[in-house]
Automatic annotation (TrEMBL):
Organism: Pararge aegeria aegeria
Matches recorded under InterPro entries: DUF34/NIF3, DUF34/NIF3_sf
Gene that this sequence comes from: jg9967
Gene Ontology molecular functions: metal ion binding
Annotated keywords: Metal-binding
Protein name in the entry: NIF3-like protein 1
Length: 274
């Protein structure tokens, strides 16, 4: 058994993990409508020796955390959003909460605080492009934080190269592409607006030649292409999940290697292209 396996006298306190998480992305960066922070805290506390990172907390991922003897799950998307009226076994979210409480597993969700922060999910997504400037589309109180990113280039870079780079970054074999009116796949772009997840409402506020997000409404895509803007879609969580790989190493380092930080093997987008 690893020296960092579950035990009452090893690992670190929950408060120390939360301190490191909120040093990276303060909770105040979350959107007002979001439900972020510590969402499940079992009655009897214990130290944290192993953390499971996931984009979405499904029942399979919760069981994975139990089987791997994790004391904490960090789920990018908050699985508790609408109020729960009960914690019984009739619905999957209730079963997940019940399992976490029974097995004494903490749950923390950062969501839009990770989107907004410099070095977060949107900046990871932006790393697919050879940009020379990057600014939030909707700035926060700090001009370096906020929703989405607007990238500009000073080099030739076309839509086909953008598709290739996005596939390489996300590990996807396929993405969805809508080419703007009077453009071709070899047309150069000098600006990209991107927003991880479902970015339609944010991208409407950007002036760019290419949009990148996980999902958009049909009529928003149609409107963009008719205005000459091309669109790349990856599926919602596939525009976010790859961030976890790099963040796992960062968090483990910030916790001075006193905690194992692993990425879920069961977490995946519910949609695939077949």
């Amino acid at each position: 058994m690893s020296k960092m396996s579950s035990g009452e006298n090893s690992g670190i306190k929950l408060s120390d993990v939360i301190l490191a998480l909120e040093k990276f992305a303060p909770k105040r960066l979350s959107e007002h409508w979001d439900n972020t922070g510590l969402l499940v805290e079992p009655y009897t506390p214990r130290n944290v020796t192993k953390i499971l990172l996931t984009n979405d907390l499904t029942e399979d991922v919760a069981l994975e955390a139990k089987d791997k003897r994790c004391e904490m799950i960090i789920s990018y998307h908050p699985p508790i959003f609408s109020p729960l009226k009960s914690v019984i076994q009739s619905a999957w979210k209730e079963r997940v909460v019940s399992l976490l409480l029974e097995t004494r597993i903490y749950l923390y969700s950062p969501h839009t605080s990770w989107d907004s922060v410099k070095g977060g999910v949107n900046d990871w997504l932006a790393s697919a492009f050879p940009f020379n400037s990057s600014v939030p589309i909707i700035p926060g109180d700090d001009p370096e934080t906020g929703a989405g990113r607007l990238l500009t280039f000073n080099t030739d870079f076309n839509i086909s190269q953008a598709v290739t780079n996005v596939k390489r970054l996300t590990g996807l074999h396929h993405v969805r592409l809508a080419i703007g009116t009077n453009k071709t796949i070899t047309s150069n772009v000098r600006s990209v607006a991107l927003c991880a997840g479902s970015g339609g409402s944010v991208l409407k506020k950007a002036n760019a030649e290419l949009f990148l997000t996980g999902e958009m409404l049909h009529h928003d895509i149609l409107d963009a292409t008719q205005r000459g803007i091309s669109v790349i879609l990856t599926n919602h969580s596939d525009s976010e999940r790859g961030f976890l790989r790099g963040f796992s190493s960062h968090l483990q380092s910030q916790l001075e290697n006193q905690v194992d930080v692993i990425v879920s093997e069961y977490d995946k987008d519910p949609l695939s292209t077949v």
